[in-house]
Amino acid sequence: xxxxxxxxxxxxxxxxxxxxxxxxxxxxxxxxxxxxxxxxxxxxxxxxxxxxxxxxxxxxxxxxxxxxxxxxxxxxxxxxxxxxxxxxxxxxxxxxxxxxxxxxxxxxxxxxxxxxxxxxxxxxxxxxxxxxxxxxxxxxxxxxxxxxxxxxxxxxxxxxxxxxxxxxxxxxxxxxxxxxxxxxxxxxxxxxxxxxxxxxxxxxxxxxxxxxxxxxxxxxxxxxxxxxxxxxxxxxxxxxxxxxxxxxxxxxxxxxxxxxxxxxxxxxxxxxxxxxxxxxxxxxxxxxxxxxxxxxxxxxxxxxxxxxxxxxxxxxxxxxxxxxxxxxxx
Length: 330
Known about the structure:
The protein is an alpha/beta fold. The protein has one domain: TIM Barrel, CATH 3.20.20.100. It contains 15 helices and eight strands. The chain has helices at about 5-15, 35-40, 45-60, 75-85, 110-120, 135-140, 145-150, 165-175, 195, 200-205, 235-240, 250-260, 265-275, 290-295, 305-315; strands spanning about 25, 65, 95-100, 125-130, 155-160, 180-185, 210-215, 280-285. An eight-stranded parallel beta barrel has the order 1-2-3-4-5-6-7-8, surrounded by five helices. α3 (about 45-60) packs across α4 and α12 crosses α13 (about 265-275). The longest helix has 14 residues, at about 250-260.
């Protein structure tokens, strides 16, 4: 089953929440360091070469940006803040995350981490603040409440959580009159654990936004890479995806073929697939073409037959792309 945009928009209105954006732009590849763009993606990303990317996005009407303290250990947030300060605060929507694994650097204090994010980005509030991983739902979820009450955070979400963890988070927040507004999980043609485990359907029924990260599997589903033209060999993504590129050929070929019908690229078909599933795909933005492609992909309406064919080819690859930080949603 997939949900069309009209159905989900109606459900959103029914639940008295804002109609969601179609696409978010991701900054995981921004900055440097152990968790930065150079190590994970094999790319150089700094303010100078990202400024035209940001400008292009705003002009294209894409204003929803997703980052995290863990991305480049604060570098990504700093870059985003330096670019966003050129615009009115209400014209840029900022999403960032509390990561339990690095909480000790902030005295295990969520408010300190949130305040540090606000300071790095030079803003006075965060549009949506996430708990990055479900290390301890009972411990960390209640700490979102003071941030919501103070106005430093407008909405909250949870990432890499399964149904039970989402439900429990909602119960805890509900006691103070709040709720989980969004779930952010790994979701792509190659990794549909959130759908198979019922998370996606649960979010749709509850009026919870579902943000899909790694929709293009860090470029492996972009159609740009193959055995003869692999991803950067020394990067984390190259080590993970280069060995399975031959297995992806039939899938990416079909994505390219379908794209020809719509005058679209392989990447845009991957994005369009995520949209027709009723998700907000987070598209990594390190080049102007990434932003332009994402904006154009919003217009593509895949048929049920095309979605089914793509998913069958994806299943036939027998590739499991679950990250080491994730647990199964099934």
